[in-house]
Task: inverse folding
């Protein structure tokens, strides 16, 4: 049996509220990061700025040194950005790397309880802390750009005009974040009401309770006016259909409610 790697618990990543929902499992945390369309990256702009900065960015976990490493192993987080962005400039001037916090969250369901106090979400969230440095090696930079591009739609890099030209490479920066700590938090299940409420027939007879599954849906692709390819490529169709099915299945299964047979797919 394979071993399960976890991030060490430290003061910066230990989940205190609803600790039973916490996970430090590397695979689970990396999976949340890699399936999120947008990552929120926070950093300190400098001593003269009173507020931290948070930027929505595209990123992906991976290992240039060990490309075959899977999500359950130690990985770096590669983040894509514009060359003159403030965060890139600060990271460029930092010898040890720019301290950053990376966060991601996915909502899987709306928990409709008897009282507003007990309403909640089914969700998956993850936070990583690490040090960001600019990728300066051309081979690693190209590898990271392919990694990030294929995280949007798998196989897209090889099915587009590549490699990038010198101008595109010069205008793009890649940050490599060495992860120090990480944690995740997952809520799944059905409604959780207090005894005083679910034993109150006046309330239970008039208030609908249950879970509304929430999941990402990719719509039907719309060709651009300049598109000359008549048929939608199979790799795009496959990604859309597979992702939509998997997303729906996860959201429904996260309710932990058995559907009536006529509603089962």
Result:
């Amino acid at each position: 049996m394979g071993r399960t790697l976890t991030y060490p618990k430290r003061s910066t990543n230990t989940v205190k509220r609803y600790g039973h929902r916490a996970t430090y499992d590397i695979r689970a945390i990396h999976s949340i990061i890699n399936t999120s369309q947008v990552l929120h990256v926070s950093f300190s702009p400098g001593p003269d700025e009173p507020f931290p900065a948070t930027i929505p960015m595209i990123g992906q976990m991976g290992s240039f040194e060990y490309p075959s490493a899977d999500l359950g192993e130690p990985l770096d987080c590669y983040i894509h950005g514009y060359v003159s962005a403030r965060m890139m400039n600060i990271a460029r001037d930092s010898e040890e790397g720019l301290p950053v916090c990376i966060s991601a969250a996915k909502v899987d369901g709306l928990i409709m309880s008897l009282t507003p106090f007990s309403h909640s979400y089914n969700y998956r969230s993850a936070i990583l802390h690490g040090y960001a440095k600019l990728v300066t090696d051309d081979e690693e930079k190209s590898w990271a750009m392919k990694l990030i591009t294929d995280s949007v739609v798998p196989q897209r890099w090889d099915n587009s005009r590549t490699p990038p030209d010198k101008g595109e490479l010069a205008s793009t920066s890649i940050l490599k974040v060495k992860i120090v700590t990480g944690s995740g938090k997952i809520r799944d299940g059905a409604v959780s009401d207090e005894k005083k409420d679910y034993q109150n027939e006046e309330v239970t007879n008039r208030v609908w309770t249950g879970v509304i599954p929430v999941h990402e849906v990719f719509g039907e692709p719309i060709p651009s006016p300049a598109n000359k390819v008549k048929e939608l490529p199979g790799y795009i169709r496959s990604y859309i259909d597979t992702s939509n099915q998997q997303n729906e299945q996860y959201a429904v299964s996260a309710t932990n409610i058995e559907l009536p047979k006529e509603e089962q797919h």
